[in-house]
Amino acid sequence: MTLQKLKYLITIAEKGSITEAAKALYISQPSLSQMVKEIEKELNFTIFTRCRTGATLTTEGMEFLGYARQVVQQMELLEGRYFGSEAGKQRFCVSSQHYTFGANAFVELVKQFGQQRYEFILNETQTYQVIADVRNRFSDLGILYLSDSNRQVMHKTLEENNLKFYELFTAKPHVFLWRKHPLAKREKLSLEDLKPYPRLSFVQGVYESSNYAEELFSSEDVEKSIKISDRAAIVNFMIGLNGYTISSGIFPKDLHGDEIHSIPLDAEEAIHIGYILNKDRELSELGKIYVEAIRQYQSE
């Protein structure tokens, strides 16, 4: 296995097609296809599933490509530092549940990094996908939360995927709602207070359950429920429909000014925000900058 072959595999994954990858690499499509077959035979598993629309990574392929990216990136950094060649793009990827403070911390990371060549990815996605992205080494780390209600299942899931959870901070549950909401002037709210209003939550697809939900008390029965996939939409529904969601209470005001209020929820639960890593990896320097930026938003 050579470094060049790893680069070829990464290009195929990025292009989503062996044909398009061959064009970008200036080699023939049959030669590239044959190379992939030889590598798959050597590894004894399939990296790509071929179809009319292109090539998609298998589960084993995603994990393998995660390791391949690390090898290629480290070699490019080594060549750039000691052999005078231009360093490749620094890649850093975070997969996260939908947190405004996580996006703001990512902005701080980019500002502090300051170099000209980089490829940074922030993937706000469903809970199980956060876990899968880190397991397959597509993402350097993942951001999610644990609570008393989901801890047992989540710990089991993380263990099965060879991942470890590192807590950043603990927050009490808060209700997010519009500043003109009928309950906006209350100092504290209960679940009973919220019953007449639409509950807003992030859709989890085939893994829809209270254990993978991004909101506490998702198993509580409500008459009005709206599930969405976009963080911006949840703010629109708070304002337009007097909807609410339950989260950590950390909501940087520079995005929406005073439009959204955060009110403590009268409940015993706690939200443990943290990051997940592969058990055999340590937090990178970029990862350290990112999680420290998150801690700063929590302290503010």
UniProtKB/TrEMBL annotation:
One of its GO terms (cellular component) is protein-DNA complex. Residues 1-58 form the HTH lysR-type domain. SUPFAM superfamilies: Periplasmic binding protein-like II, Winged helix' DNA-binding domain. It comes from the Bacteria. Keywords: DNA-binding, Transcription, Transcription regulation. Belongs to the LysR transcriptional regulatory family. This is LysR family transcriptional regulator. It comes from Anaerotruncus colihominis.
